[in-house]
Amino acid sequence: MRTELPAASTASGPGVEDVLGLIRAGGGRITSTRRVLLEVLLGSDEHRTAEQLAALVQARLPEVHLSTIYRNLEELQRMGVLVHTHFGHGPATYQPAVGAHGHFVCDVCAATVEIPPELVASLADGALASSGFVVEPGHFAIGGRCAHCARA
């Protein structure tokens, strides 16, 4: 089952209760681990690895094992609640699945710069016009060099 996250219930995106409602509507279970994981994910604009998320969840629920976090992340991705991406060659990071979202990632210093939505739209429009390819951007990273490293 793939869900559609609701339009932002707050300025920064859907709230925990919005997502829990979607999970319930799809027949999913609401566990304390899943609730805390969603609170951590939706309570920050940061992109975090599974290990970082586990540490934050374990600060509140010490008995939660890393494998439980991975299973929940996998299930939430399958449901379309969150997405993951790789910045460079590093581990996957996770964030809510809210619209097209991309980053430029410097291959030299690992700096990340969020790609403006209009540039993502332009890329998708250009791909369609030039090749008929329909881009489903979700969340992605494009490697290259940041302005500082390109000057060096």
**How would a crystallographer describe the biggest sheet?**
3 strands, mixed
Q: How much strand? A: 15-25%
At CATH level 2, the architecture of the largest domain is Orthogonal Bundle
- Total number of helices: 6
Radius of gyration: 17 Å
Q: What CATH first level of the largest domain would be assigned? A: Mainly Alpha
Residue runs with pLDDT of under 50 for 5 or more positions: 6-11
The strands making up the biggest β-sheet line up spatially as 4-3-5
Integer tally of domains: 2
What is the CATH T-level topology of the largest domain? Arc Repressor Mutant, subunit A
Please count the beta strands (DSSP E, at least 2 residues each).
5
The sequence of SSEs as H and E is: HHHHEEEEHEH
Structural class per helix/strand content? alpha+beta
Helix content: 40-55%
Distance between the termini: 48 Å
